[in-house]
Amino acid sequence: MPPYVVKELQTKEQLDAVVDVIWKAQYSPYMPSSSIFFPVSGYTPEDRAAGISASKERLWKEHLSSSPAEHTWIFVEDSATSEIVAGSLWEWHEKNKVMDGIPKIDMYWWPNGEAREFCEEMLRQCMTPRSLWMHRPNAGVSMMVVHPEHRKRGVGGLMMQWSNRKLDEGGIEGFVEASELGRELYEKWGYRVVMKIALFLPPNKGDIWNKLAHEMMLPPWYAMWRPVNGVVKAGERNRPWQLVPPLHP
Predict the structure, then answer these.
(1) C-alpha distance across the termini of the chain, in Å
(2) Which residues form the N-acetyltransferase domain (predicted)?
(3) What is the CATH number of domain 4-230?
């Protein structure tokens, strides 16, 4: 087993390599819903290359415009080959930015039209648990991927170990939105399911909407919570953020 090391991302070249892993991972196995974040406009190799290039530019611009205190990319490197084999994006929150309701979602990388409206509504529903619970300082993973050839080797665990150490150093809770594929990893690292979400998108709005509902609908996923230090204190309920009522400005 090759040795792996976790590093914080510093350069565009590193992020480009992580994006290459993202594209590889989302097609092994194929996850149609990932296209809401990484769309391809056609079916040729050139269309795919254009989609990869656009996603690299978009994520780098978002990285540069975000505060390091709120947004951290990490990656895992195979120290034997210097190959980047995994990556994850962590977001740090001092307070709930959506406690007054889900904000309008702007998926600006999609052209205006019915397809964009569909993707924005799907993501809006995904954010519902955040508006219910995230009322205390917390951190959450926005994205996590491992190259298919490096799965089942402890790579995901290294990223979780890094994040749990940061959570515990800050004395804050963790919150993730997990697929069935990722649920087992998060449970191993102290997260527990607090809600299972199945999306409902109104049918028959239009041909494009119906096509995407058939092809890209997210499967049921899990809202998962990790208490401070991974431990629920005596007398506390096994649910996040219910001990403190929502605070309003």
Answers:
(1) 52
(2) 131-215
(3) 3.40.630.30
Angle at 230 between CA 145 and CA 63, to 5 degrees: 35
- The CA distances from residue 208 to 25, 44, 117, 166, 203, in Å, are 26, 21, 10, 43, 11
Two tokens, residue 151: 């799965």
* C-alpha dihedral sign at 39, 41, 44, 47: negative
Q: Which residues contact 83 (CB under 8 A, 6 or more apart)?
A: 77
Whose CA is closest to 141, among 116, 117, 167?
Answer: 167
Q: Where are the domains of the chain?
A: 4-230
pLDDT in tens, 94-136: 876 666 666 678 999 999 999 999 999 888 888 877 777 777 8
Tens-digit pLDDT profile for residues 50-97: 999 999 999 999 999 998 888 999 999 999 999 999 999 999 988 766
